[in-house]
Amino acid sequence: VQKTLEIIDNISVPEEISFESVQKLCEDFDRAFALVGQERWKWFHIIEPYFIFDRRKFDVTLKRVVDSHGELRNFLTHRYAKVKDTEAAFSSVDKLKQTLNDSEELDKSKEQMKLRSASLEKEIEETQNKISSLQSRGEASELAILNQKIEELDGKVKHSLRHLQKPLIKLRSLAQSGQTAVPLEDARKLDEYLSNPFIALATEDDGYPLLKNILRKLDEVNSQGKLKLKMSRLRKAQEQIDDILQKDNLVPYQQSCKEAFSHRQQLLASEAIARLQKETEQVQENLREIQKQKNLVDSRNAFLETEQKKTLEKIENQKTELEKLILKLSNRNVHIILK
């Protein structure tokens, strides 16, 4: 009896009644009755005959308790089921309210991101206008026109050397592998003609003697059959070699390249251009930083958009669940409208 009382004392009766709390109480009773049954089986067969009537009283009392527990479980399973649904409805209402609050917070955050994005766009526009203003100054404008002219000259020189590109690459490869000898100065100028023909031609002596040395070496290697190129490619390359060596068709380009290159060097060396470039670099750095912030804001806004879509879907699902619970409880179709 003492052991049984200890087992019963360990059962905690809930202060607030709900389906879950009563269900837990029933489960606690199930475990307690199982332990009492184990104790009964352990002790009842060795109880003295003098206490046989006390044992019978214990069995009767235990049966009454078990029967009462059965009634409680039956009540919980059947008659209390409506309360369970009602509790679920209240819980669904609370969940829906919380989700609506989350959606409202997301709307506020999106509005903040929108204002921040508009502010950054304005800063970007103002900074770009400032860069345009700097670039429209006299020295900058002159440098921009000169750079455009250099770009055009670079395209013309490349066009004049277009059929020599592949043969010159082959020549450099032969020189690097030791299959043909090319003087160091010529080899450096060869690399320059392949990477930046404008600079190569502009920094050559008049009459481009180094280029002519390279082309003569190319002619020599070709006559030895080391280039291993298609006949059509070799024929076009030979035509351009002849134009350069025999007709000096690059002389007009070289003079223009030298003048443009020299003029640009003078402009770049001037204090006005140096100040302008420094100021422009600072403004461009500011622009990059603002653009970086704008990208972060856009990324955050995209994330908020995704989260808002998920939240709206969650709201619709919770509304549908609550409407079904209300139908189950009241047998009425209810449509929840949210403003």
Task: Please sum up the structure shown.
The chain is mainly α. It has twelve helices and no strands. It has helices at 2-9, 19-43, 52-77, 81-135, 138-160, 165-177, 184-195, 197-202, 209-223, 231-245, 251-269, 271-330.
What does this structure look like?
The chain has 339 residues and is an all-alpha fold. It is 82% helix and 0% strand. The longest helix has 60 residues, at 271-330.
Notable traits:
elongated, 12 helices, 339 residues, mainly alpha, single chain
What is the element layout, followed by pairings?
Elements: H1 2-9, H2 19-43, H3 52-77, H4 81-135, H5 138-160, H6 165-177, H7 184-195, H8 197-202, H9 209-223, H10 231-245, H11 251-269, H12 271-330
Mean pLDDT across residues: 85
Q: Could you tell me the strand content as a percent range?
A: under 5%
Tell me the quaternary state: single chain
> Termini, distance in Å?
63 Å
